[in-house]
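To whoever is on call:

I kicked off a structure prediction for a single chain this morning and the downstream step that reads the tokens threw a length-mismatch warning. I double-checked the sequence; it's 361 residues and nothing unusual in it as far as I can see. Pasting both halves so you can look.
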Amino acid sequence: MKVVEVLHMNGGNGDISYANNSLVQRSVILMTKPITDQAISDLYCSLFPETLCIADLGCSSGANTFLVVSEIVKIVEKERKKHNLQSPEFYFHFNDLPGNDFNTIFRSLGEFEQELKKQNGEGLGPCFFSGVAGSFYTRLFPSKSLHFVHSSYSLMWLSQVPNLIEKNKGNIYMASTSPPSVIKAYYKQYEKDFSIFLKYRSEELMKGGKMVLTFLGRESKDPSSKECCYIWELLSMALNELVLEGLIEEEKVDSFNIPQYTPSQGEVKYIVDKEGSFIINKLETTRVHWNNASNNIENINNDGYNVSRCMRVVAEPLLVSQFDPKLIDLVFQKYEEIVSECMAKEKTEFINVTVSMTNKK
């Protein structure tokens, strides 16, 4: 599986699109907003740039993409009015992998720009938008061309599935039953990827430029703890039920692994300090409950349905690269049942790690 070719959220505006099943991600953007607000405010007030270049990495599509833009513009406009300055020109780069639904973003742009002008008044400077297709584990922008980088719920995705020397039997992600070599391989891939990411962003950000990143993460020291791996463990259970029913080959489950790593605060700090390009200004953990997972009003009280839809829009493109697409509906029917049973018995939360940094170079 080549991650760069198959990893993307379900596009469009349909029932199983990311646009209609991304309330958790929206909640996290709003929950971490004070950190982003502080970073963009500090940046603007230290430079007062006439042009402000901003990149949103792993932008996906839908309302969350525009939420980030509108919040940043709002903060800058507030500060420039305080200082009685002319509004800067805004240049926003939307980045994601080539399979991302950029078309939906740009079809919605005209309506969004009108709303942006309405919210901020006639004095708002011109806003320019571009789509940048490519992996953020490569160089994406010219040297020293960016003022600010934002990324939310994207950087836990790895550039590739880790090279495993042992099979992760019965699992599709790290789990308590995974061999130690599997856990080690996952961390090794994450450390390599995040270090490369920091290096490239330090080259693209101007000196003093800011970056705010939010990962799906964990508080536990154990990378295979339930607080970060349980959501995938339950999907493994659904797939393994189909193995028992003879609908999926056991080997196909054993050879399929999710290219993701959910870091702790300590791991993020260690890698940032080791790579050396950035100063950490803020590093904190937040929590959001699994049940905050869908825009589907008809199923607002069906937690299993909502979480299943939320995960489907993320995992489906990966699953269809390995398993028969005709089985995907059945996989998520079983997953919904398993998740519902789990949520009725246990407290289920996503852990988020947010870091705000300044480029030294």
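Update from on-call: the warning came from a stale cache, not from the record. Cleared it. Sanity check on the structure: Residues 66 and 112 are 7 Å apart (CA to CA).
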